[in-house]
Amino acid sequence: MIPSALPDAATFDAAALRADFPILQQQVNGHPLVYLDSGATSQKPRQVLQAEYDFLTRSNAAVHRGAHTLAAEATDLFEDARTAVARFVGALPEQLVWTAGATLGLNLVAYAIGNATVGRGAPASARFALTAGDEIVTTEIEHHANLIPWQELAARTGATLRHIPVHDDGTLDLDAAAGIIGERTRIVAFTHVSNVLGIVNPVAEIVSLAQAVGALTVLDACQSAPHLPLDLPALGVDLAVFSGHKMLGPYGVGGLYGRSEILEALPPFLTGGSMITTVTLDEAGYLPPPQRFEAGTQPIGPAIGLAAAVSYLQDAGLESVHAHEVRLAERMRAGLVEIPGIRLLGDAEGVERVGLWAFDVEGVHAHDAGQFLDAQGIAVRVGHHCAAPLHRRFGMTASVRASLALYNTESDVDAFLDAVSGIRTYFGVNA
């Protein structure tokens, strides 16, 4: 096992922890790399890389299919990973479905509900069937992955899609939500943390509104899982998704959490091998969850890597990680508001948030600003961040986004602020 540079949670030391992340040791364009794009994808510690490498070089085999030694070892590692990742989000192993990521998880749910609409699945799945006049509710701040699947489901079923609006400060309009979520609402899908605004949304209030009318709740936890202690059952949501590559883990793996009675009632989405009980030439019977939703060869190595990632986050201490990132975010905000021509999105007072700021640079396109920062070794995100409707709400087509993780330091923030202060001058825009 590789020794870890993880600090004690009480004395969080991101500078020491960075030794676990090989990519952070390099220079970019002649400058030390300042990586502020963890909201798009996080960097991976060597413990995660080693876990995948060890599996591939010692135990690589198909799971649940073979009687030989390697197959048994691979199956044990795969299911142990499920247990570890499920525990990380407060769930039981049978409540965690492996997916290729959050986008697939959300599509799985939307298409499974669509299959219930056409009469597939167990009799219990009839509770999910949608018809014309039923309503699906999302919000104005959603990532496209938690918007377009519901658009498509509405188009296939005749249901109506409605949206909870956002205030000018980036907080959701809960008064409007109370009027939108009503007796025809069947599904309420919303994000835990906006990938543009960084605000932690009021899950309890939204779940309460949905439960009052018997609506299914679906939570996008991609931007909360790496940054906050997460207990999905305690949040009261019916279903939730998260993505491994945003939480120090590998690409190509994520999780779909579901309350047991929900997963047991949902019909499958993908079908094929490994998710069946019996098959004839004319029909098939399906396994119980989670295997019912895991057709074909699964992301075995990535799942094992994700288990190593959640172990790393747990060793760091999510409370300490969150506190560290919030301190850095406050330092970043204090510097940004002092720079002329910077407009922050989601700069609400008195709300919980993660370490993420999106902003506009007056007179400079976001892509130009991003290229200027990249020339100084600073990696940020530019564009609409797969949230075009939200940008349109704020009268913008694109923004610059700086997102923090547990491996960022005060020197990262200071280098970023120093560079941002020179953007408008470089492009000849008067302060």
TrEMBL record:
Species for this entry: Microbacterium marinum
Residue intervals of the Aminotransferase class V domain: 34-416
In the record, the note on similarity to other proteins reads: Belongs to the class-V pyridoxal-phosphate-dependent aminotransferase family. Csd subfamily.
What EC number(s) would the UniProt record show? 2.8.1.7
Q: Which UniProt keywords apply?
A: Lyase, Pyridoxal phosphate, Transferase
Protein name from the UniProt record:
Cysteine desulfurase
Instruction: Please name the taxonomic classification of the source.
Output: Bacteria, Bacillati, Actinomycetota, Actinomycetes, Micrococcales
Q: Which reaction does it catalyse?
A: (sulfur carrier)-H + L-cysteine = (sulfur carrier)-SH + L-alanine
Q: Name the domain of life.
A: Bacteria
Instruction: Describe the task this protein carries out.
Output: Catalyzes the removal of elemental sulfur and selenium atoms from L-cysteine, L-cystine, L-selenocysteine, and L-selenocystine to produce L-alanine.
Q: Tell me which cofactor or cofactors this protein depends on.
A: pyridoxal 5'-phosphate
Membrane-spanning ranges: none
Database matches in InterPro entries: Aminotrans_V_dom, Aminotrans_V_PyrdxlP_BS, Cys_dSase_SufS, PyrdxlP-dep_Trfase, PyrdxlP-dep_Trfase_major, PyrdxlP-dep_Trfase_small
Any single biological process term in GO: cysteine metabolic process
Q: Name one GO molecular function term.
A: pyridoxal phosphate binding
Note the PANTHER family from the entry: CYSTEINE DESULFURASE, CYSTEINE DESULFURASE 1, CHLOROPLASTIC
Name the Pfam families on file.
Answer: Aminotran_5 (PF00266)
